[in-house]
Write a structure and sequence with these properties.
Number of domains: 1
Order of helices and strands: EEEHEEEEHEE
CATH architecture: Beta Barrel
Helix content: 10-25%
Number of strands: 9
Number of helices: 2
Strand content: 35-45%
Shape: globular
CATH superfamily: Acid Proteases
Distance between the termini: 41 Å
Structural class: mainly beta
Length: 125
């Protein structure tokens, strides 16, 4: 396992011209969702849609707002849920975003590698 960071930008899905500056995020395949600073998301007009409960590595239960954003990093793009990270929270790029990008993580070269998406129920001819 390795640790590396990438620059990620978030865009407002309703007004794509509103986007954050590049935000340095830790690539974390142990985190389901992407966590970005709440103030950066709010500045571009992304609003919380609901609250979710999370458990930290120390088993502490915390509640955070979650909204929707278009996320871009390393030439990849996807639409995903994002957590409104509070001061003291880490900025993370989670596994659902990585799956949306259609990439795997190369832990040795510290980069993304494009993958083929599996199709369920294809009808061979």
């Amino acid at each position: 396992m390795s640790v590396f960071k990438v620059n990620v930008t978030a865009c407002n899905p309703k007004r794509e011209e509103f986007m954050t500056p590049p935000l340095e995020a830790l690539v974390d395949t142990g985190s389901e969702l992407t966590w970005l600073p709440a103030d950066a998301l709010s500045k571009i007009g992304i609003s919380p849609r609901r609250k979710r409960m999370f458990h930290t590595a120390t088993k502490q239960a915390i509640e955070r707002d979650v909204g929707y954003a278009i996320l871009r990093a390393e030439g990849y793009e996807t639409n995903d849920e994002v957590v409104f990270a509070q001061p003291g929270d880490m900025t993370l790029l989670g596994v659902r975003t990585l799956e949306g990008f259609g990439v795997m993580v190369d832990n040795i070269a510290h980069r993304f590698v494009a993958t083929t998406t599996l199709a369920a129920g294809s009808n061979p001819k």
